[in-house]
Specification:
By secondary structure, the protein is an alpha/beta fold. It has three domains: 46-160, 3-Layer(aba) Sandwich (hypothetical protein tt1634), CATH 3.40.1520.20; 164-278, hypothetical protein tt1634 (3-Layer(aba) Sandwich), CATH 3.40.1520.20; 350-468, 60s Ribosomal Protein L30, Chain: A (2-Layer Sandwich), CATH 3.30.1330. Helix content is 49%, strand content 25%. It has eleven helices and 19 strands. It has helices at residues 4-25, 68-80, 99-115, 137-148, 186-193, 215-229, 251-262, 276-363, 377-391, 410-430, 455-461; strands at residues 46-47, 49-55, 58-65, 85-92, 96-97, 116-124, 127-134, 153-160, 164-165, 167-173, 176-183, 201-206, 210-211, 230-238, 241-248, 268-274, 398-403, 438-442, 463-468. The strands form five sheets. Strands 4-3-2-6-7-8 form a six-stranded mixed sheet, with helices on one face. A six-stranded mixed sheet has the order 12-11-10-14-15-16. A three-stranded mixed sheet has the order 18-17-19. Helix 2 (68-80) packs parallel to helix 3 (99-115), helix 3 (99-115) runs antiparallel to helix 4 (137-148) and helix 8 crosses helix 9 (377-391). The chain is flat, with a radius of gyration of 52 Å.
Amino acid sequence: MKRIWPWLLLLLLLMILCVCTKQESIHVSSDTKTNVTETPIVSDVRYIDYAITQKDNGYVLKGNFTNTQQQTSLTQMFTVASSSLIKKGTSTNVSLVGEEGIALTRKILPSFIENYKNGKITYSNNALKIYGDVSSYDAQHAMQRLLNTSKLVTQDHSSVYVEKPIDFHIKKDLEAVSFSGTFSNESQIEVLRSKLPASTTKHLTQAKNHIDKGSLNVTAGILPHFMQKYTRGSIQYKETVLSVSGTVRSQEDLESMQTLLAQTSIPVKNHTTIDPIALAQAQEAARVAAVALATAQAQESAKLEEARKAKEAMLAKEKALAEAEALKLEQVKQAQSEAERKAQEHAELAADAKAKIGTLLKIENIEFEVAKGSLTPKGASTVSKLANILKGYPDINVEIAGHTDSDGSAQFNAKLSQSRVDMVKSKLVTKGIEAKRLTAKGYGESKPLVPNTSDENKQKNRRVEINIQGE
């Protein structure tokens, strides 16, 4: 035991020494600064992300949003700018944040829509990036100023493109036509290609940023005249000047092209001339025409003399015809007077007949069995009386017009009214009235006297009228 105690004492001293040493190592004076590496804090914030991409003639929106209102606030910007936007694969999640990105995007969209081609805007991880070709340095700087108004991380990857004018050359040699040039897109090419023959030889290239400043529409306007009237020639657009050269067959063709070019708003040069061969042919044609005119004038003089003599003979003949025509006219007047007298007599007879028929039908209706085309005994008696009246006026023709109320279907009522007037006509024929004097027409419910709103009104609408024809 005596040997162990020294060791225990030594161990105790060592422990005391360690404790003191640790206290000194963790003591920091208030005047001393240290570089402490902080442990990164992992954030739970999740941001919205989206992309707006130019495609064809419109834009496509994809991405993840907090709510649909954020999407709507972006689509409204395209509506105001009269541009089309389609949403493709968008979603919403209320846990996502990033309203600052939406606000900045709305601020830059008008400039983006107006000035960018092949453009794209992306927002991801709380950072906004913009890509595409911008029309000018001023437009690019304006976009950068807009981006700098936000505290968000932004990156501008746009590039300025320099526009160049298109150029083309259309050449015609008799029936052979060639078409060459540099254009920005297929639609520019099609404006001219649609006006050229299908057999046209083409050597066309497409290069980015080549624009048209009105030359395509001007050329499309003059091409039909060029193809039809020019024997040989060319239309060339180079360095913003449109040049037309070649030969035409006449002065009129030359002036027509000058008129077309005078209406353009772009610089033009016209080097068109008249084809010498065509000009000589035109002059010869003019000489032949002059000879033909002189011959025609001599022939015309002879014809005039002949016509003078013929006119004298004709005048004598016309005098005789006029006298005969006067006699004929007098006879026609007498015939018209007789016709008018007979018409007056017929009108008086028609009025008399109409009055008698009206009086009869006012006292007695032509009655039928309910919903049938057959006459009641009273209705048959009325028809007999009607026949007696018509016998007194053998030159009077009448229409038997049948009408119903609105009860039942229109088809049934039309059929019912026709069967009833047919029955009246048949009855009159059996009473000695010629069938050719009678016209039977059923109108159904189409011509009511009064609205079918009461039994009394409906009774008035159920009727057979006898109308004098030729009044």
